[in-house]
Amino acid sequence: MKSQFDGKKIVVGVTGSIAAFKVAGWVSSLAKEGADVTVVMTESACRFVAPLTYGALTGNPVLTDMFAAEESNAISHIQLGEEADLIVIAPATANTIAKFAHGIADDLLSTSVLAADCPIFVAPAMNSRMLANTATQRNIGILKELGFRLIEPESGQMACKTEGPGRLPEWDRVREELLAAFTPQDLKGETFVVTAGPTREALDPARFLSNRSSGKMGYAIACAARRRGAEVLLISGPTALAAPFGVLCREVQTAEEMYEAVIPASHEASVIIKSAAVSDFSPETAAVDKVKKDDAGFVLQLRKTPDILQELGAEKEKYGYLLVGFAAERCEHLEAGEKKLVKKNLDLIAINDIGGKETGFETDTNQVTLLDRHGFTELPFTSKAATADLILDRVCKLLSEK
Description:
Distance between the termini: 30 Å
Low-confidence stretches: none
CATH class of the largest domain: Alpha Beta
CATH topology of the largest domain: Rossmann fold
Radius of gyration: 25 Å
Helix content: 25-40%
CATH superfamily of the largest domain: CoaB-like
Mean pLDDT: 92
Number of strands: 21
CATH architecture of the largest domain: 3-Layer(aba) Sandwich
Strand order of the largest sheet: 12-11-8-13-16-17-19-20
Number of helices: 14
Shape: elongated
């Protein structure tokens, strides 16, 4: 599945900040995902990173001088603005932000921005005191009013050795913000609750019962839903994954904690996607101290954990949400999925094939069968990120039919 950046014309405007070196990584990533990237540098930016660097990464000439570009019949500032699908200014200095806020056009970058008819992202990067200055904050406010999209800076240590806000964000976060500009906002106004990962049921302070779920599928769904405009709460068991950008994340450990987090949140949700692998059983009692090998018995008394999906299905009509469940199966997928769909009163179930080495638990790829009351659809073998969007396509269709 192609990246949403593939074939897009993206202009990256680089201005005079030490953070210019960081943008080289952004440019490289965009080019690798198939974007046609043109870098425009201000005169001061060239003092931090040589234009040749960006040219090598993009395969395109780097534009630095408006009159030189015009004289050589290269792309003009008008063409740049008209043909771009997206412009991102990074790093954006206080001086550049002031120019954009007041319509000053005295170089190739600022004139191109004035001529643009596409989303324009601005990523400020500067000393914390410069960022906090009243003039800078006023100019940032003006940019927002004019329709510029601000990529908020992060906090940390600056090149000047001070601590505070003003650092350029990492690419993973910026990528999500840019991708949203190319993504239909077909879930805007929807409130999602997504569960992900395993739960852990303690045997003693050192041991627990759990499963192989990595949380990757649920995190991918939460990320894709936010990108498509939804407000998303991700309730996650223990994983090694970072919280997706823009998603409210609540961490739990046990099935009981998952229940206590999900049920109240469900009352405000329009869509619930239960992709977590919640433990069905927990020990009757957990030992206070670590059980020694010589003292351990060979019989473990278990009790059932709360059936969260069953309760959500029972309350679905009362609260009006769309309910999507998951089933991890090795064989007889459709039979098991249909039984769960009816028993739990689901609108849709995604059946994971856990029999293959590249599907199901702990992989970056998946192959899912979607089943609702009208029949089933076999989704293609693809990445979990792509699978998430295919599942959400069906969710959109079901929402439109409600």
